[in-house]
Every structure is written in structure tokens, then in C-alpha cells.
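User: I'm curious whether this sequence folds into something compact or stays loose and floppy. Could you predict its structure so I can see for myself?
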Amino acid sequence: MKSAWIKTFMLAHKTIYQLTRGWIGHYALYHRFLLLRTTGRKSGKKYLTPLSYFKDGNNYILVASNWGQADHPQWYKNLLKEPETLIQVRSKKIPVRMKQSDEQDYVRLWMLVTRLNRHYVRYQARMDRKIPIVVLEPVQRKVF
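Assistant: Here's the prediction. I'll summarize afterward.
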């Protein structure tokens, strides 16, 4: 269960990011953040989650560490059910599709993200689950 300060931080971060169109909130805690839109896999409710991200070419990389919690984050579970979604990076809204990486790509991406954020190494050391790395590929929306 996430602590009250994490929930408060996430709500404040999301609100400020939206109000300023990413001008405030894109950089926070020495990391870059985006807003991820997901739909609840059970509830159908729409969610908007601020997440730190990394770039790998044109792709956006997310780490489903869930702040070191034992279970995968809800946003990750929702993406597994509905892999096409929208992210907001600063003021730009980008349609993306989630892609699972193979083991070789996972190792390369794990090295990238842990070089930039050592918290993931500590999280992984104290949990039984393997922390998923999510690759979001920008996609062209079909125009009719």
C-alpha cells in the first residue's frame, strides 16, 4: 500500500503538470516526468498518472517499480489490457502503444534506467517480482 505522502505527491504533481501544460512538473526530483492515460481494466475509469520516463530513440521508457512495492502498479496492469494509449510530455500529447521487451532488450534497458536512477536497483533487491520495463512506441493515429 502506498503511503499518504506518495499519494499526495502524485495528485499534486499531476495537477500542477496539467495546469501548466508541463512547464512545471516535467522536471521534478531530478527526473523527467510525463502523464500516462490509462483505463481501469475492471472499472473502466480513466486515470492520469505522472511517471518518470527515459528516452530510447523515439520510444518512451517507463519502469513499473511501484515505488518498491511488492505488486505491479495499477497503471502497468491497465496497460497490459489496453496497450494503446496517450501520454503527455510537457504540452505535447502523443499516441503510443506499449511493447514488451525481449530478455536481451530488457537487460540493455535495465542498464540504461539504473544508470540514471539507482533507486530501481534497491527496489529490485528487496522484492521477489521482476520489475517490468515498459516501452511506449509513438504511433500514428488513423485519420478518416
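Summary: The longest strand covers residues 31-39. The beta strands are 27-28, 31-39, 46-52, 54-56, 59-63, 84-89, 92-100, 133-138.
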